[in-house]
Amino acid sequence: MKNKKMVIALLFAATFASGYTAFSDENAEKTAAAATSAAEAKEAAADAKDYAFEQKAEFVAQMKTELADINSQIDELIAGQVAKASDEVKAEATTKLQALREQAATLSKQLDEANSTTKSNWDDFKSGFKKSYSGTKASFKQFRQWMSEKIAP
């Protein structure tokens, strides 16, 4: 009888311990996923800040700063990773970077047009610009991923 109680107690303890470990692992994964989601949400919220027409100058200044940052990152990639690449990768990277620079130039022209927007077409301008800007950021992110695959760290 004593052995049965001991075996049951050990089984209970083992079951509890394994359940607790699984629960802890699951919570760690959820915490990591939540942190990643929170960071992504914060970035998206910053990108999607809804500027009123009265904040047009602030919007243009913010977007010009972000475009300058993208151009700066392109320059860093050219001086860093692209410079170290093989001739074949350099040629392909140059083509891709030229397309990115053209996208950035188009965005810059769109921002220059912001000065002529009116209150009635401001929302259309913002949504069109944000769509173009998101596309450029996505293209840049894809280029960085492509470069990381072509050049081993």
Describe the protein.
It is a single chain. The chain is mainly alpha-helical and 153 residues long. The protein folds into 2 domains: 1-48; 50-150. It is built from 4 helices and no strands. Helix 3 (87-113) packs antiparallel against helix 4 (122-150). The chain is elongated, with a radius of gyration of 26 Å. The protein starts with a helix and ends with a helix. Residues 20-25 and 39-46 have low confidence and may be disordered.
Q: From the helix content, strand content and strand pairing, which structural class follows? A: mainly alpha
Number of separate structural domains = 2
Give the strand tally.
0
> What is the percent of helical residues?
over 70%
Low-confidence stretches: 20-25, 39-46
Can you give the mean pLDDT?
Answer: 76
The best one-word shape is elongated
Any descriptors?
153 residues, mainly alpha, 2 domains, 4 helices, 86% helix
Protein topology:
Elements: H1 2-47, H2 56-84, H3 87-113, H4 122-150
Helix pairs in contact: 2-3, 2-4, 3-4
